[in-house]
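Long-time lurker, first post. I've been practising inverse folding by hand and with some scripts of my own, and I keep getting stuck on stretches where the structure tokens seem ambiguous. Below is the full token string for one chain I'm working on. Before anyone asks, I'm not after the true native sequence, just a reasonable design that respects the backbone. If someone could post their per-position residues I'd love to compare against what I wrote down in my notebook.
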């Protein structure tokens, strides 16, 4: 019914629009006659009045033109720049306008002595068109609507009620009342129509189902005992296999994880500690050389190199210890903490690096309390801020904030202004010993791996989004307090 009525309204609208458009075009054609009337009836008299400078005659002619229907404004300009103007008080919008050259003819000579500008206003024609549109729309809509209602009545009387009865029969059909057939209260005919075919198909299906149910009952009785024994045996074996499978999968995952972490430890010690140790050995050998005299500036540079290498070794060892502590701490107690406090503590720890890189850090939005561990949450902020400062471009502009999620969690994020990461780089994030931009920043590839472990321990998730228009957004989630 809705489809028929909607289709009727669409057709009525289209027919009405076509009729209104044709009426509008006809009205515009009638308006052209106004210009013809002015050109034929008034222009010769205006030319004579301008030639003889007969002011009363000119005013009378202009008043006459102004009284012609649909004329909104007149402007008459003579050859001596003298001007006359008439305007209808309700003239607001121009529908058509035209300029008429006023030519005075004397014998074979013609003299252009002025220009008459005529504007036809849209008010009257719009009012007439609106009345016409209403009449057309009402007539067309009522006619088509009555036709549609008649069609719906016919459909309801001869088809709809039988379909409802058929649907009701099918809905109430159950396995315990398959003996009752479907009959429709309609005149019998030798020729079958679509409703008769539907009734025949439903009754045939009911009969076949009834026969199949009787056969199935016999088979079910014979198989009942065997099924119970088999189900019990399968359940016992399945439970045993599932338990053993889960234990094996857990052990396998633990072994894979432990092997990966052992490889990580070995790789870190062998790779990341090699450079600072080499620097320490080289600088110490130069300082201990007996036959080599170094300047005070050179000695200071070597000592600074030793200090920087020691700091880097200390940072690597701290990261490894934190990674090991996160792995071993299984019974972590969560408490209500202030996200803003942990974030500001992390900013304080990163202040020296931020000053060195010229980074600016801005806090955004509100900062709720969450269920987490204060020290570990601060470590997550430190790692994210460290990456943002290092890889955020020249004089990084960093924004950090928190967004509420609908599932009872909050989303903590750090947004930088760097170049962002490619799709291949994004796929390698949060894996141990993955580092981007070796030439521009110092790192040992453990930061995001530690972040992932910490956040998983706290019951949240980590991720990466591409910022708009450029940059990166690293985020993690925590449960709201």
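-- Answer (accepted) --
I ran through it position by position. Result:
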């Amino acid at each position: 019914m809705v489809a028929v009525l909607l289709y009727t309204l669409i057709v009525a609208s289209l027919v009405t629009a076509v009729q209104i458009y044709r009426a509008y075009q006809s009205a515009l054609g009638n308006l052209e006659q106004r210009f013809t009337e002015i050109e034929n009836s008034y222009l010769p008299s205006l030319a004579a009045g301008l030639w003889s400078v007969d002011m009363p005659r000119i005013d009378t002619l202009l008043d006459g033109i102004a009284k012609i229907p649909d004329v909104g404004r007149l402007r008459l300009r003579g050859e001596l720049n003298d001007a006359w103007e008439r305007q209808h008080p309700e003239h607001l919008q121009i529908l058509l306008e035209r300029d008429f050259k006023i030519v005075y003819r004397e014998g074979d000579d013609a003299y252009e002595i002025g220009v008459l500008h005529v504007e036809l206003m849209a008010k009257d024609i719009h009012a007439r068109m609106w009345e016409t549109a209403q009449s057309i729309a009402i007539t067309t809509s009522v006619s088509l609507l009555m036709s549609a209602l008649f069609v719906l009545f016919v459909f309801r009387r001869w088809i709809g009620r039988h379909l409802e009865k058929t649907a009701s029969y099918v809905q109430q059909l159950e396995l315990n009342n398959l003996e009752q057939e479907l009959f429709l209260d309609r005149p019998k005919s030798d020729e079958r129509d679509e409703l008769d075919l539907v009734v025949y198909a439903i009754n045939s299906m009911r009969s076949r189902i009834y026969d199949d149910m009787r056969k199935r009952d016999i088979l079910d009785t014979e198989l009942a005992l065997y099924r119970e024994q088999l189900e019990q045996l399968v359940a016992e074996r399945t439970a045993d296999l599932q338990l053993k499978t889960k234990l094996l999968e857990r052990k396998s995952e633990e072994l894979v994880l432990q092997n990966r972490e052992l490889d990580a430890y070995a790789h870190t010690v062998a790779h990341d500690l090699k450079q600072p140790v080499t620097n320490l050995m080289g600088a110490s050998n130069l300082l201990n050389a007996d036959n080599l005299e170094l300047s005070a500036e050179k000695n200071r540079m070597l000592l600074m190199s030793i200090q920087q290498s020691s700091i880097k070794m200390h940072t690597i060892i701290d990261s490894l210890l934190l990674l090991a502590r996160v792995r071993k701490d299984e019974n972590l107690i969560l408490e209500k903490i202030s996200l803003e406090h942990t974030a500001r503590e992390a900013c304080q720890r990163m202040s020296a690096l931020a000053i060195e890189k010229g980074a600016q850090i801005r806090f955004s939005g509100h900062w709720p309390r969450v269920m987490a561990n204060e020290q570990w949450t601060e470590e997550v902020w430190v790692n994210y801020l460290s990456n943002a400062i290092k890889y955020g471009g020249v004089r990084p502009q960093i924004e950090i904030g928190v967004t509420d999620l609908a599932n009872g969690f909050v989303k903590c994020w750090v947004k930088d202004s760097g170049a962002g990461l490619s799709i291949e780089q994004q796929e390698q994030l949060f894996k141990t010993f993955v580092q981007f931009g070796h030439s521009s920043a110092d790192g040992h590839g453990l930061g995001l791996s530690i972040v992932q472990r910490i956040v998983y321990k706290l019951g949240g998730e980590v991720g990466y989004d591409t910022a708009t228009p450029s940059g990166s957004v690293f985020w993690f989630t925590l449960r709201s307090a």
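A couple of notes from the structure itself: The two ends are 52 Å apart (CA to CA). The longest strand covers residues 94-106. Happy to go over any region you disagree with.
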